[in-house]
Amino acid sequence: MAAAWALCLFLPGAHAQTTQEFTLKNGMKVIVKEDHRAPTVAHMVWYRAGSMDEQNGTTGLAHVLEHMMFKGTRTLKPGEFSQRVAALGGRENAFTSKDYTAYFQQIEKSNLEKVMALEADRMANLVFSKDEFAREIRVVMEERRWRTEDQPIPLLYESLYATAYQAHPYRHPIVGWMSDLQTMTVEDTKHWYERWYAPNNATLVVTGDVDARRVLALAEKHYGRIPKKPLPMTRTQVEPEQQGMRRVIVKAPAENPYVALAFKVPTLRDVEKDDEAHALDVLAAILDGYDNARLNARLVRTDRVAVSAGAGYSNINRGPSLFVLDGTPADGVTTEQLEKLLRAEVERIANEGVSESELERVKTQLVASQIYKRDSIFGQAMEIGTMEMSGISHKLIDRIIEKLRAVKAEQVQAVARKYFGDDKLTVATLVPLPLSEKKAPPPPKGLRH
């Protein structure tokens, strides 16, 4: 869990890099990070529209439109966008999250303008073909079956989110509920595109061997001519206070049982003031931030009561956050027993605290583990975009590192005491059914990510 949810931060001073921010007249934000170590560029467009912006009955719409963005414009045939990027020797893809949708290309620096022109074209000139939609919606439904319905742990997490959140749209899966996909129309995707895909709802992030002023000139040339749109006023439902433990059981074909415990905890909103979020980040690292962290060292290696045990906390979100403990019990151990053992590790920190030596070791691991992100041009673009979409400026990336370094042992102990009781807890348990003799189907054709 921790590896997948870890906060991606860059160490200041690892390389001399310049980041500049601009805003075009049509409201599009442009962020450029120069990194001249290799003649490559990452070009990303982020739209602040994800599955949390959908309505009941049309879940999955943000993701379906992501697929449709590769199905042609007024000047490009279906699939031609990807063919042109490939012909330039580049790679491209897209992804949808609960908070945003993003599109990217990684190319040799001399081809930046060409991919920028392509991306600007589909921001303004997407074509909605009923035939292409009919083919693509089948791909998405197969993707849902392959990635969620036929996969026990993703299926469990779908139920976990739907149980932990009763009002907030985080309760819906990004891929959408199958019944909504079955009734979705091409007009639905067109309406979503017209509603959200506007320069004033987009952030362009370019990292790599570029000159910021040159990138700005290209952005003005290609994106600057696209008119802004009036953006919809949305009222995201606020999740009501949870008043007691919730449980959900998922029965599915699987090799092993599994349990996940999700506690409602604060989200990082103000980097300077939200010290509890920084302390929770450190707590996650103490439990599962490196090979010899507490959960793995005690439950897996020493006591051998779990095949796997993890902790994860994602505090960079537009919506609320969960702190998750999870694991697969060893033979002879029940999920109920593992559940208690996972909680006992947090209770041990709540009762006994953390030594200064362990805290410093963990913080060093937490910060140092991120240095590799700075070796990736694409990783830098990802971090900038993710921060911006959550409402936290990319300019505060290094400040978050400083705040993590400043976390004290008593702060970690305090959050361990405060947020891990029963009243804010949702537990999801996987009860394995016999595995089918039938082999798993291959990934659906057209699957992009």
Automatic annotation (TrEMBL):
A molecular-function term among this protein's GO annotations: peptidase activity
InterPro entries (alphabetical): Metalloenz_LuxS/M16, MPP/UQCRC_Complex, Pept_M16_N, Pept_M16_Zn_BS, Peptidase_M16_C
Peptidase M16 N-terminal domain: residues covered: 29-175
Keyword terms of this UniProt record: Hydrolase, Protease, Signal
Cleaved signal peptide residues: 1-16
Cofactor annotation: Zn(2+)
Annotated ranges, domain Peptidase M16 C-terminal: 184-366
Family matches, as SUPFAM superfamilies: LuxS/MPP-like metallohydrolase
Keyword Coiled coil: no
Stored Pfam families: Peptidase_M16, Peptidase_M16_C
A biological process term (GO) from this entry: proteolysis
Keyword Hydrolase attached: yes
UniProt similarity note: Belongs to the peptidase M16 family.
Protein name as catalogued: Zinc protease
Protein source organism: Noviherbaspirillum aridicola
